[in-house]
Amino acid sequence: MNGFAVGAWAAMIGLIVVLFTFDLFVAVRRPHAVGLVEATVWSVFYVVVAVGFGLALWTVAGAQAGTEYFAGWVVEKSLSVDNLFVFSIIFARFAVPAEYRQKILLFGIAFALCLRAVFIAIGAAAISLFSFTFLLFGLVLLWTAMQLIRHRNENPDVEDTWLVRRARAIMPVGAGYHGGRMLAVEDGRRVVTPVLLVFLAIGSTDLLFALDSIPAVFGVTSEPFIVLAANAFALLGLRALFFLIGGLLERLVYLTIGLSLILALIGVKLILLFLHQDITRTVPELPTTLSLALILLILIVTTIASVLRVRAHPEERAHPGALRVRSTSPDDRASPPSDGHPGGTAPTRMPPL
User: Residue 289: CA atoms inside 13 Å, Cβ hemisphere, count?
Assistant: First the structure.
């Protein structure tokens, strides 16, 4: 592949904008709690769109481009499940009413996609300028994998991100949600509503996720067009997926371990690629098709093992993991509640490795 034409970029970005606009005016024009049927329909729709785009890419650009896209999309989709854990924690900590959640998710995902586009551009430039970029990305992924394993019992601190702290410092925070608006007037003064804080919390935490997910996709393709497409179509379906499997997340007790293995696998792939291209051709590369097969195998085994573990130990709950340990009370280590109220269930044991 020698890159994609301007027309291909315009078509992909146009499709993303159309889908976002469609989501905005059709899915969330009326604030309401999302039911299982609605979430299922939207989830299937976005999977069909993502697969359809991949098949079109396969037909137009060839099997290599198609395989790399599907591998990148699967990687992003699997890593995004960890995002759903964090979304659940954020909604619980800020006590977000059910009818406002999908609107906040939609704008948070749009913000995250814009940030990721910037990161992808920086990553692509770094790869073209510095031969050691693949080595750096691989080491970052291996470090992230080890940190997730070490701190798999932790929940990230979603209320203390830099953006949330700055918003609290600049303007007073109101008490109510005011119909889902970000700004409102209380007692004659303009205030920030919790909606804005939740939006910033989602955007800033996804920024941290992007630091490992984007290098992970660069591990299966060095083509920026495919990296952006995989990110976009994985993120666009995230809103519906949250409402579809939200109640099942806490049952995936081995998810963090599975994601750590995926990150480690792609980290090794990137390091082998660097050694093969810059040191000696005798170092083998890990083919994209094999990477995709191993990733799918890890996801299947992780899911089955989690189901069996929870069936035997129903008191156990999953955590999204954290890249560093923070000072918390025992209650902060509780699993995120699924009813959208602050607090959580009693602390639970994590399954052994």
Answer: 3
